[in-house]
Design a protein that fits this description.
- It is a single chain.
- The chain is mainly α.
- The protein has helices at about 1-10, 10-45, 50-60, 65-75, 90-105.
- It is elongated, with a radius of gyration of 33 Å.
- The N and C termini lie far apart (about 100 Å).
């Protein structure tokens, strides 16, 4: 009985066994959580084939030349620098002030 009590109070039982239980239990727990993740991804990853075909038909290929032509059509000589509201400013009041200033400027 004394040997069993000494074994139970030893470093192996107080530190080693709980560490091994923690590592093995964590491994199984992590596997279960990962499996849930992949199962949810499978459920949400399914798309209707008709919708997939419709999306493929609506895709326009974007090329470097088409983007350059779009940029070339825009007028880069006449632009106005517009300041956004600061963090402490209310965006609605700033927008009202800008609209009022623009209205007075055009009159």
């Amino acid at each position: 009985m004394e040997k069993l009590r000494r074994l139970w109070r030893g470093r192996t039982m107080t530190f080693g066994v709980p560490l091994l239980l923690y590592l093995i239990g964590g491994s199984f727990g992590l596997r279960e959580f990962a499996q849930i993740r992949y199962d949810v991804h499978k459920l949400h990853g399914k798309v209707d084939p008709a919708l997939k075909e419709k999306l493929k038909q609506n895709q326009n290929p974007v090329t470097l030349e088409s983007e350059y032509e779009k940029l070339d059509r825009s007028n880069l000589d006449n632009w106005e620098n517009i300041r956004g509201p600061s963090l402490w400013e209310d965006s609605r009041t700033v927008q009202k002030q800008r609209r009022e200033a623009l209205r007075l400027k055009t009159e």
